[in-house]
Amino acid sequence: MLATLQQTGHGYTARFERHFKHSVTEVWAYLTENDKLAEWFDELRVHDLREGGALKFDMQDGTFEEMKILELKEQVVLEYTWAEDQVRFELYPEAEGCRLELIERITKLTSHTAKDLAGWHVCLDVIAALLDSIPFGSRKDVWTKWHEKYAQAVNELTKTVL
User: Which fold has domain 4-161?
Assistant: First the structure.
């Protein structure tokens, strides 16, 4: 299912929702433990897990970009900066596992927005596959499919804004 995109008073939001048949504790580990984080987002590492702490993004050229942790509530909320934007993970226990919501607050839509949205979509699908211990296949092929859909959704959103 495509993320919900909408304009807000300060830009835009993209809201992804996933239901896992796994506990909050298991899902939280994939968001905050570097060995598990590396399995679904190889460039991202937790540097200092606390409010005011940081994650680091490996730019693959010998440099790292620091993402400041804006909010951290153990096994409930992890929010950090993402360049000019913000990424927020929220976890909610459910009877048969948990619900994860990923909310990206986007300052402005750019030519890269659809790429990022497709990337987050695939990352969440990879987390689901890892939790269920099933192979994922070609991330690039899956990303390409979702990128087309997000490019169309971003294009539709920009038409309504104009």
Answer: Alpha-D-Glucose-1,6-Bisphosphate; Chain A, domain 4 (3.30.530)
